[in-house]
């Protein structure tokens, strides 16, 4: 397929980048991408454009990542769960209870470790240039889930991450990978009995209408990433790369500022819609997933990465970069 970012040889001054995502327009990250598009336009005096294809218009995330590798898209939004099946390095972010708190999440994801991971897939035809916070993911269903035993026999929608699939199995549920945009009808038709996500996504997708119990076991904090095709990146000149990166960094800051507000608003809205937030003792969930860590650490590369993360969490001077 011909690359859609076509820069004429004599005039590399007008560029349109195509970004695909499967989020709805209200999603905090979708709003941040619009912020980024405006800034790109402004900083380049109208010579660079970001054309956004939202709502899975271009397909599910896994599919769009493939399209980007083939040159049909320049940028794709993906969570670390989507990326895990493209490169194992992203599996670490899918480990349950990896970060003791959100400050440590930021320290790792926006610090040197995150940078290293984001750059590491260049030879696969893409790499990540932006990272976004995504709170905690917890279970929701039409009944409370207070202990792993409550998950027995329940089909739970997951993203297509092998680590998440193992996690749900260890907790006692049946994992069912489904694209984000198809979860509403899967819940409605009983294809799954529940799902897991952060509070804003639970509300913005209207899953709250179908699953009134949000049980806060807070099993994972999975970052979102903006990925770019390596060949698109190489075709941009230095100035264009700088403009893109400035707009990406500013979109990260914008998203972090929005996040807490949106999280709080979503909770209020969910309660108004009849949702119950259930407090959960995390200890039995943590215990159930211990074999996942044991298995993960058998790979020396994984063990090294996990050690680096623990060290970063313990050090007080290793501040996030943005
Ligand atoms: C969150 C996350 C998305 C992801 C979605 C999902 O909303 O921000 O990137 O696609 O969860 O569960 O699929």
Can you give me a brief rundown of this structure?
One of its GO terms (biological process) is transmembrane transport. The chain has 322 residues and is an alpha/beta fold. Helix content is 43%, strand content 18%.
Bound molecules: alpha-D-glucopyranuronic acid
Roughly how many Å is the radius of gyration? 20 Å
Q: What's the story with the biggest beta sheet?
A: 5 strands, mixed
Spatially, the strands of the biggest sheet line up as: 2-1-3-10-4
Number of strands: 11
CATH architecture of the largest domain: 3-Layer(aba) Sandwich
Tally the structural domains.
2
CATH topology of the largest domain: D-Maltodextrin-Binding Protein, domain 2
Average pLDDT taken over every residue: 94
Number of helices: 13
- What name goes with the CATH superfamily of the largest domain? Bacterial extracellular solute-binding protein, family 7
Question: Helices and strands: which structural class?
Answer: alpha/beta
Kindly estimate the percentage of residues that lie in beta strands according to DSSP.
Answer: 15-25%
Termini, distance in Å?
36 Å
Helix-strand topology string: EHEHEHHHEEEHEHEHEEHHEHHH
Q: Report the helical percentage.
A: 40-55%
